[in-house]
């Protein structure tokens, strides 16, 4: 409360005097404590009823653990949203090397446009497809083994359980599109956190079949999925191969015919409306005309996985402005790169990254770069022992003092970058940094540089304590940025529902909150 906050800082000096109260207040105003998020499981249930089980492709051989976790969780949500609107097209803003885009295309059969400003990343997306081809035989084999193992476990666990649910039903829609989302007021989150007002449709009854027959059906489905995934790769990156070997030495006529049909299907799919991924290179702003980039723009879901700086708020602005974009799923990052309207008073006539909502605009709210830098820190990682790189931060702080006192430089467009890991000592670090900053390092002797180190080394613990306070405060600043974006969506008349959803494990992926919004249906 306000009385507790008033005791945190000295009224005269404004210095921090009660660290415990500071930490408790920061925790109170964190997003995890405020209870403002919609649980992911409840959102999925509201969108599509009972969750459908899928035979997931393991992606960790061509993605790291963090990216694999993010892609699989986010793509499942995107699939549910797209099914709700009966949409087959996805636009991935800031698609990078195409991990999310290609997975949505492969596993969920969407036509995906991945837009990134970097030609290097677009090339990386094609390289990822090459890696997929290299590993796919192993994925297919492992998926078959996992499938059979799962069926055996079901048999052993309960002999009486002779019926299971079909994996999919092509006639079933997760939500009835006639159950209109008329207004944001209708869609509420009650005290229990249940996402209530999105009406679920009457789902068709699931077929009951024998375990053995289901296993055979699943294996057939898996073989079809193999062709589906191969179909999306470039023609020069794909070798059509037989997923079920013929038992005899010579290939029978039936097998030859099957292979020929598979090859024809692969070629035909290149012109189909789904199962395709198109990496595009373009710089996206709030004023970007998507129809100039995507010639066959149709009703789409717009997504962004860790869109950097202003790209995240611009994604939301494009969503609200373009009638073809029916839903958005945006996870931002790099808050320190956001532009701020009230940080640079001399600049005018620009679309700013912060603030977005009218309330904070009216208040003239400003975070400042230092606060936004703090918002990028990862409290959950520090809590499990992944400590801050104190020594490298200390090197950087002393370097700044050296540059200011000896070269008179207080601001520069040049960046030191990741020199610490390439340096053998503090002296080596300073020399390399000065050269990268294009400053004459011969101006300073070795002894002069080391004198700075000796002068400040006893304050390293002080620096560590200061950075830990920044880590504690980080969630509060992130809350401000995320709620600003959410309030902007709440101000729009064409939005049926919008909310914050914790998508990822914050230890694996610190920027774990997604902003989800659905437009009203005509």
TrEMBL record:
Domain of life: Eukaryota
Segments of this protein annotated with the region Disordered: 153-180
All residue ranges annotated as the Methyltransferase domain in the record: 66-341
One of the Pfam families matching this protein, by short name: Methyltransf_32
Name of the protein in question: MET25 protein
Organism name: Eudromia elegans
């Amino acid at each position: 409360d306000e009385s507790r906050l008033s005791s945190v800082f000295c009224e005269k000096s404004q210095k921090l005097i009660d660290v415990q109260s500071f930490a408790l207040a920061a925790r109170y105003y964190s997003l995890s404590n405020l209870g403002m998020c919609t649980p992911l499981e409840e959102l999925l249930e509201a969108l599509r009823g009972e969750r459908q089980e899928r035979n997931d492709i393991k992606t960790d051989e061509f993605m790291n653990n963090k990216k694999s976790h993010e892609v699989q969780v986010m793509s499942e949500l995107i699939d549910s949203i797209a099914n709700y609107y009966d949409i087959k097209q996805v636009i991935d803003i800031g698609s990078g090397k195409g991990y999310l885009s290609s997975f949505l295309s492969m596993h969920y059969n969407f036509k995906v446009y991945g837009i990134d400003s970097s030609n290097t990343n677009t090339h990386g997306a094609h390289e990822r497809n090459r890696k997929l081809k290299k590993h796919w035989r192993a994925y297919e084999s492992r998926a078959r083994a996992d499938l059979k193992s799962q069926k055996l476990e079901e048999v052993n666990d309960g002999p009486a359980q002779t019926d299971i649910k079909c994996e999919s039903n092509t006639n079933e829609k997760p939500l009835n599109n006639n159950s209109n989302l008329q207004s944001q007021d209708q869609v509420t989150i009650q005290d229990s956190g249940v996402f209530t007002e999105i009406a679920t449709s009457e789902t068709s009854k699931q077929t009951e079949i024998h375990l053995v027959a289901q296993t055979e059906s699943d294996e057939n489905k898996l073989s079809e999925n193999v062709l589906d995934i191969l179909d999306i790769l470039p023609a020069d990156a794909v070798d059509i191969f037989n997923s079920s070997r013929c038992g005899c030495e010579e290939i029978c006529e039936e097998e030859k015919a099957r292979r020929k049909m598979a090859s024809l299907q692969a070629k035909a799919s290149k012109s189909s409306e789904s199962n395709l991924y198109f990496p595009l290179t373009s710089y996206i702003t709030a004023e970007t005309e998507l129809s100039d980039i995507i010639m066959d723009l149709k009703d789409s879901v717009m997504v962004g996985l860790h869109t950097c700086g202003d790209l995240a708020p611009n994604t939301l602005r494009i969503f609200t402005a373009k009638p073809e974009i029916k839903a958005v799923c945006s996870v931002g990052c790099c808050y320190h790169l956001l532009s701020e309207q009230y940080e640079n008073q001399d600049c005018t006539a620009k679309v700013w990254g912060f603030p977005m909502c009218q309330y904070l605009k009216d208040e003239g709210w400003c975070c400042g770069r230092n606060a936004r830098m703090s918002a990028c820190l990862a409290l959950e990682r520090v809590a499990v022992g992944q400590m801050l790189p104190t020594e490298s931060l200390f090197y950087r702080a002393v370097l700044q003092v050296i540059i200011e006192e000896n070269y008179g430089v207080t601001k520069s467009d040049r960046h030191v970058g990741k020199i610490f890991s390439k340096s053998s000592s503090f002296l080596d670090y300073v020399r390399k940094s000065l050269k990268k900053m294009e400053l004459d390092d011969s101006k300073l002797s070795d002894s002069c540089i080391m004198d700075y180190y000796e002068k400040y080394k006893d304050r390293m613990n002080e620096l560590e304590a200061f950075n830990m306070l920044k880590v504690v405060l980080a969630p509060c600043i992130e809350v401000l940025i995320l709620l600003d974006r959410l309030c902007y969506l709440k101000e729009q008349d064409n939005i049926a529902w919008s909310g914050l959803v914790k998508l990822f494990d914050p230890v694996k992926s610190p920027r774990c909150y997604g902003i989800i919004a659905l437009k009203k249906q005509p």
